[in-house]
Write a structure and sequence with these properties.
Layout lengths: L22 E2 L7 E2 L1 H10 L2 H5 L1 H4 L28 H55 L1 H6 L4 H40 L2 H5 L5 H7 L4 E4 L10 H11 L3 E4 L14 E12 L10 E8 L3 E7 L5 E5 L4 E5 L9 E4 L5 E5 L4 E5 L5 E6 L3 E8 L5 E7 L5 E7 L2 E6 L16 E5 L5 E5 L6 E5 L5 E5 L12 E6 L5 E5 L4 E5 L5 E5 L7 E6 L4 E6 L4 E8 L1
Antiparallel strand pairs: 1-2, 3-4, 5-28, 6-7, 7-8, 8-9, 10-11, 11-12, 12-13, 14-15, 15-16, 16-17, 18-19, 19-20, 20-21, 22-23, 23-24, 24-25, 26-27, 27-28
Helix pairs in contact: 4-6
Length: 539
């Protein structure tokens, strides 16, 4: 390896000498520590250690190449060890394994399925043509006045063209993946520091483009005596070409699984104090925009909704049209903000130019929260104006497609109180609602048809107080994460409602809003501290 582009040694902890040292003393710099020793070392600091601050803070770490502390050393050098070369190499190996063993085979299987559909198309369209000809003998001019038989050839050609386009797109992605695999192998062989440090994973881009296998929804031709209007509708249905994808348990993700960490890590802590209009300001909800930015919603703030980077830079701020706080926020796949407003009973979209468009206006009901499904639909949890009912409705734009509020025994799924409710969709298409009832909070999970799957009312491990579920979200493994407001922790469940663990020892206080980024890092909005934390809880 080229020493100008590499680092040779992993610096050990100065206390235990066994673990790698990602931490260093801000006072003396040379006191390198691992995570396990850091807490103990704080208690051991002496006056002598502090008195040497003015001398030691100017010294430099030992250089692996020139055996000098000289600042003029030209060898590459990582002063704070925030990003470890070894950790980068592990990430590269993981990406390479996923590309070779999972993503590339998936694309290759999709390519292989298209020729099979080509053959099936020919046979099906031959049968359709024969049936259409036979029916045409009976319908004569009525058939010709609605649709021509020759149009089938055009549809057939369009089908083949769409499949060919899909095949070319997949083959192009396979080429890109193969190039990435070759580059990662070369990177692992060379171990060069600078290319390794600058490496950015493209696996998430490949996963986003990895659509399930495309299946054609082919038309049917019904042979029966019909009047002209009926014939028209039948042929309209015939000549509508549509596609659907196979049902899956959710968005594609790494098949290797992401186990929970024994000790989660707080990666970022962001204070939102300067934008409070009074000392009583608080955060209501949070929503991720990719891995770098977040929308937050608050009350008693100068702005109701604000877009931040995780480094604390304010990018954008928006007021609701009603002038009152939003009750919940979500982000579309295009990065546009959606918020529910309980004051004027609306659900609105904030365009990228900050113009606000009202999508849903309720009558007799008030929205309690909103989320975006994997299909782009809106799920709105709401309660009636008389406070006697609550329900969840699915919307395509402003059109209500589905609603559910009772179980199979006719009992209400959700509390009728106008209390806080948060909602999200899991990767298996279950709908999860946190229902903060006055007596006892509950998480209610139904399938996509609205059939009750289970309810969760807290764990015996939380003994500080009653279960108060607020924010709720899910990760790529189908795990459900619920903010327990009163017990200052986050419950982690599997997709069937089994308790897995608590995230409770990271100075959390009144966690209220939750979301998860594309790498399954948990974003927590804390209520009164007006603080946002990014926590890594799985490997």
């Amino acid at each position: 390896m080229d020493p100008q582009n590499s680092i040779r040694d992993i610096v050990p902890c100065s206390l235990c000498r066994f673990s790698m040292a990602p931490l260093h003393c801000k006072i003396c710099v040379l006191r390198l520590q691992c995570s396990d020793c850091a807490e103990n070392s704080i208690r051991e600091l002496t006056n002598d250690h502090e008195e040497q601050q003015s001398v030691r803070r100017r010294r430099f770490l030992f250089c692996s190449f020139c055996n000098e502390h000289d600042i003029r050393c030209r060898a590459p050098f990582v002063k704070h060890f925030e990003i470890s070369h070894d950790l980068k190499m592990l990430n590269i190996k993981r990406d390479l394994r996923e590309l070779e063993n999972y993503i590339l085979p998936k694309y290759q299987n999709l390519t292989a399925s298209i020729p099979v559909q080509d053959i099936g198309l020919n046979n099906i369209f031959k049968k359709l043509t024969t049936t259409l000809n036979k029916q045409g003998e009976n319908l004569h001019r009525k058939v010709d006045s609605v649709k021509r038989k020759s149009d089938l050839d055009e549809i057939h050609s369009n089908c083949l063209s769409i499949l060919e386009k899909r095949k070319v797109e997949i083959e192009h992605n396979i080429t890109d993946i193969s190039l990435s695999i070759a580059y990662l192998k070369k990177l692992l062989e060379s171990g060069d520091f600078i290319p390794t440090k600058n490496y950015k994973s493209r696996n998430s881009d490949f996963r986003k483009k990895l659509h399930p296998e495309v299946k054609l929804i082919l038309p049917e031709f019904i042979t029966e005596e019909l009047d002209r209007e009926q014939i028209y509708h039948q042929f309209t249905s015939l000549f509508e070409l549509s596609f659907r994808t196979k049902e899956t348990s959710g968005a594609e993700s790494s098949p290797t699984g992401r186990p929970l960490m024994e000790e989660p890590l707080t990666i970022t802590s962001l204070n939102i104090i300067k934008h409070r209009s009074s000392s009583g300001g608080s955060l209501i909800d949070v929503a991720c925009v990719g891995d770098e930015n977040i929308w937050i919603a608050g009350e008693d703030m100068w702005f109701h909704m604000m877009l931040y980077t995780l480094q604390g830079e304010l990018l954008k701020s928006v007021q609701t049209m009603s002038g009152y706080k939003p009750v919940g926020i979500a982000v579309t796949k295009d990065g546009e903000l959606v918020y529910a407003d309980g004051d004027d009973r609306t659900v609105n979209i904030v365009k990228k130019n900050t113009q606000i468009q009202t999508v849903i206006r309720l009558e007799g009901w008030t929205p309690a929260n909103v989320c975006i499904t994997s299909s782009g639909y809106l799920l709105v949890v709401m309660y009636s104006d008389d406070g006697e009912q609550s329900k969840v409705s699915r919307y395509n734009g402003s059109t209500e497609l589905q609603s559910f509020q009772y179980d199979d025994e006719g009992q209400p799924l959700y509390s009728s109180e106008s209390c806080l409710k948060y909602i999200c969709e899991n990767r298996n298409l279950d709908i999860c609602v946190s229902d903060d009832e006055t007596a006892a909070g509950t998480v209610v999970v139904v399938n996509q048809a609205g059939k009750l799957r289970f309810k969760y009312s807290g764990s015996s491990r939380t003994t500080k107080g009653s279960f108060r579920p607020f924010g709720i979200t899910t990760d790529s493994q189908g795990r459900i994460l619920v903010a327990d407001f009163k017990n200052h922790c986050v419950h982690v469940l599997d997709q069937d409602g089994q308790f897995l663990c608590l995230i409770d020892n990271y100075d959390l206080f009144e966690p209220r809003g939750l979301c998860v980024d594309t790498r399954d890092n948990l974003i927590v909005a804390e209520n009164k501290p007006c603080r946002v934390k990014k926590i890594q809880y799985c490997i």
